[in-house]
C-alpha cells in the first residue's frame, strides 16, 4: 500500500483530485451563496412590501386604518409566517401575534431576533427578521417574518453541498487508488519483461494491451528498439561467422605462400613472385576490413559533417564516365537518361561510391553483349534513379538478405568480391534518407533509388564541377568497387 501511495500515478491522481475538489468547492460555495442570498432577498422584499402596504394605510386612515388592516391580515391567515405587533407609548401590546415587545430592541430599523416561547403561542423558538418603526403618535410598530424555515432550508442546502464535496473527494481518492493500481500493474509488467530481457531472454517483448495510450506507444517503441538490437546482435554474430569463413581461405593461402617462400629450394625469382602474391592477399584482406570500418563509420552518422548540395544527374554522369570503358570491354550497351536540375544534400564521395558499386555489379553480372540502363526521372513528382541490367537477377526470397554484410547469393563464392558492396550502398543510402528497393524485371535485376524524402527541384544553373573533387570520387570508387 505504501508503494502504491508513493507512486507517480497516485500523486498525479491526488493532484488532479485536489484541483477538481477545489473547483467543485468553489462552484458549490457560489451556488450556496446564490441560493441563500436569493432566499434572504426574498424574505426582505416580503417584509418591505408589507411595510409599504401598512405605511400607505396609516398615511390615508391613521391609526384606526392601520389597526383594521393588521386585524384583517391576522384573521385571513393566522398561521402565516408574517409577524405584527403594535404597542402604545408604554410598549404595551395593542394588536399583533406577539405577546409583548421583544426586550433590548432598538426603536427602529432592521433586526434579527429569536422568538422564544414567551413571545409566541407555541413552545418552539423561531428565528425572525423584522423592521421597527415609531409612529407619529408615539406608537411602536414591528413588522417582520418568521425565517425559521428559511434557516432550515439554508442549512439543508449547506449540508447537501458539504456532503457533495465530501463525496467528490472520496470518489477522487478511490478513483486515484484504482487508477494508480492499474497503472502500477502495467508498469510492473514492463519491469518484469525488462528483467527477463536483462537476464538474457532477448525474445521477450513489452506487453501491449491495444489501448494505444502512452504506455502502449512506449511499449511499441521499446519493442522496435529491441527488434533493432536483436537484428544488430544477429548481424554481429553473422558477421563474425562470415569473417571467420571468408578470412580462413585467404589466410591459409597467405600462410602457404609464405611457407613456400621460406623453403631453401625456392629460387630467388619464384620467392619474389610468392612475396608479391602474399602482398596481394594481405591487400585483399585489408580492403575487406577497411570496407567494414567504412560501413561502421557511415552507420554512426559521422559522415553528415561533409554534406553539401549535389546535382544528381552530374554525379551519375561521372559514374557512367568511369564505367563506360568497362562496359565497352564486355561489349555491353549502356543506355543513360538523366533528368537535369535535381539537387540533394549529401556526401558526394559516398554517393559516388554507392552508385559506382551498383553500376559495377550491373556490369559484372550482365553477360557480354548485354544491355544496362541508368535513368533519372520524375515519376509521380518523385525523383527516381533506376539501374536495370540483363543479368540473372536475385530471387525474391534473397532480395533483402543481399544487404547483409558478407551475404552472397552465389553460394560457391567463385565471383570476385566479399559481399560488402550492397551493405555499403545500403548504409550510404540510409545516411542520406534514400529508399532503395530491388525487383526482378524481364531482362534481369532492377535497382530503384527513391530520392523523394530529400530531393528538391532547383532550376538554378549548376556550379562548375570541381575537377579535384570529381577525381577524388572516382579514386574512392576505384579503390572500393571490389567490395
From the structure above, extract its key features:
483 residues, alpha+beta, Beta-Lactamase, Heat Shock Protein 90, 5-stranded antiparallel sheet, 13 strands, 55% helix
Topology:
Layout: H1 2-5, H2 8-76, E1 82-87, E2 93-96, E3 109-115, E4 126-134, E5 140-146, H3 148-198, H4 214-262, H5 268-299, E6 308-311, H6 312-329, E7 333-338, E8 342-346, H7 348-365, E9 371-379, E10 382-388, H8 421-431, E11 435-441, E12 444-450, E13 456-457, H9 467-480
Parallel strand pairs: 7-9
Antiparallel strand pairs: 1-2, 1-5, 3-4, 4-5, 6-8, 8-13, 9-10, 10-12, 11-12
Helix pairs in contact: 2-3, 4-5, 5-8, 6-7, 7-8, 7-9
Distance between the termini: 62 Å
Query: Roughly how many Å is the radius of gyration?
Result: 49 Å
Proportion of strand residues: 15-25%
Task: State the share of residues found in helices, binned by percent.
Answer: 55-70%
How many helices does DSSP assign? 9
Largest sheet: 5 strands, antiparallel
- The CATH superfamily name of the largest domain is Histidine kinase-like ATPase, C-terminal domain
Can you tell me the number of structural domains?
Answer: 3
Task: Write down the oligomeric state.
Answer: single chain
Known CATH architecture of the largest domain:
2-Layer Sandwich
What's the total count of β strands? 13
Shape: rod-shaped
Overall average residue pLDDT:
78
What is the succession of H and E elements?
HHEEEEEHHHEHEEHEEHEEEH
Helix/strand structural class: alpha+beta
Main β-sheet, spatial strand arrangement: 2-1-5-4-3
Amino acid at each position: 500500500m505504501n508503494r502504491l501511495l508513493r507512486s507517480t500515478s497516485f500523486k498525479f491522481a491526488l493532484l488532479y483530485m485536489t484541483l477538481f475538489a477545489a473547483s467543485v468547492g468553489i462552484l458549490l460555495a457560489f451556488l450556496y451563496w446564490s441560493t441563500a442570498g436569493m432566499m434572504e432577498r426574498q424574505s426582505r422584499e416580503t417584509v418591505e412590501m408589507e411595510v409599504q402596504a401598512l405605511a400607505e394605510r396609516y398615511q390615508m386612515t391613521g391609526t384606526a386604518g392601520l389597526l383594521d388592516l393588521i386585524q384583517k391580515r391576522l384573521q385571513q391567515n393566522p398561521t402565516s409566517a408574517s409577524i405584527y405587533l403594535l404597542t402604545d407609548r408604554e410598549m404595551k401590546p395593542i394588536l399583533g401575534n406577539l405577546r409583548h415587545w421583544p426586550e433590548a430592541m432598538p426603536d427602529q430599523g432592521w433586526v434579527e431576533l429569536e422568538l422564544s416561547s414567551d413571545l409566541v403561542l407555541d413552545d418552539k423558538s423561531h428565528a425572525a427578521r423584522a423592521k421597527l418603526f415609531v409612529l407619529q403618535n408615539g406608537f411602536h410598530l414591528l413588522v417582520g417574518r418568521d425565517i425559521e424555515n428559511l434557516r432550515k432550508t439554508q442549512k439543508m442546502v449547506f449540508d447537501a453541498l458539504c456532503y457533495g464535496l465530501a463525496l467528490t473527494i472520496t470518489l477522487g481518492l478511490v478513483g486515484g487508488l484504482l487508477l494508480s493500481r492499474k497503472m502500477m500493474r502495467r508498469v510492473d509488467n514492463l519491469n518484469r519483461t525488462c528483467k527477463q530481457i536483462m537476464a538474457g531472454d532477448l525474445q521477450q517483448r513489452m506487453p501491449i494491451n491495444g489501448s494505444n495510450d502512452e504506455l502502449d506507444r512506449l511499449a511499441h517503441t521499446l519493442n522496435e528498439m529491441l527488434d533493432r538490437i536483436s537484428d544488430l546482435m544477429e548481424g554481429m554474430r553473422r558477421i563474425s561467422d562470415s569473417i571467420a569463413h571468408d578470412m580462413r581461405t585467404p589466410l591459409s593461402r597467405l600462410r602457404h605462400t609464405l611457407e613456400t617462400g621460406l623453403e631453401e629450394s625456392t629460387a630467388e625469382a619464384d620467392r619474389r613472385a610468392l612475396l608479391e602474391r602474399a602482398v596481394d592477399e594481405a591487400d585483399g584482406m585489408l580492403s575487406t576490413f577497411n570496407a567494414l570500418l567504412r560501413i561502421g563509420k557511415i552507420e554512426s552518422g559521422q559522415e553528415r559533417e561533409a554534406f553539401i548540395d549535389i546535382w544528381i544527374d552530374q554525379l551519375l554522369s561521372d559514374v557512367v564516365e568511369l564505367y563506360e570503358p568497362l562496359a565497352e570491354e564486355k561489349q555491353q550497351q549502356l543506355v543513360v537518361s538523366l533528368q537535369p536540375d535535381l539537387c540533394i544534400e549529401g556526401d558526394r564521395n559516398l554517393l559516388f561510391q554507392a552508385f559506382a558499386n551498383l553500376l559495377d555489379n550491373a556490369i559484372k553480372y550482365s553477360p557480354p553483349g548485354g544491355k544496362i540502363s541508368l535513368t533519372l526521372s520524375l515519376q509521380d513528382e518523385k525523383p527516381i534513379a533506376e539501374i536495370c541490367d540483363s543479368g540473372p537477377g536475385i530471387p525474391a526470397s534473397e532480395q533483402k538478405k543481399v544487404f547483409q554484410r558478407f551475404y552472397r547469393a552465389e553460394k560457391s563464392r567463385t565471383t570476385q568480391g566479399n559481399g560488402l558492396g550492397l551493405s555499403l550502398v545500403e548504409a550510404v543510402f540510409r545516411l542520406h534518407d534514400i529508399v532503395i528497393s530491388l525487383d526482378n524485371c524481364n531482362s534481369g535485376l532492377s535497382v530503384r533509388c527513391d530520392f523523394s524524402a530529400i530531393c528538391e527541384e532547383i532550376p538554378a544553373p549548376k556550379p562548375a564541377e570541381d575537377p579535384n573533387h570529381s577525381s577524388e570520387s572516382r579514386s574512392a570508387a576505384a579503390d572500393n568497387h571490389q567490395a
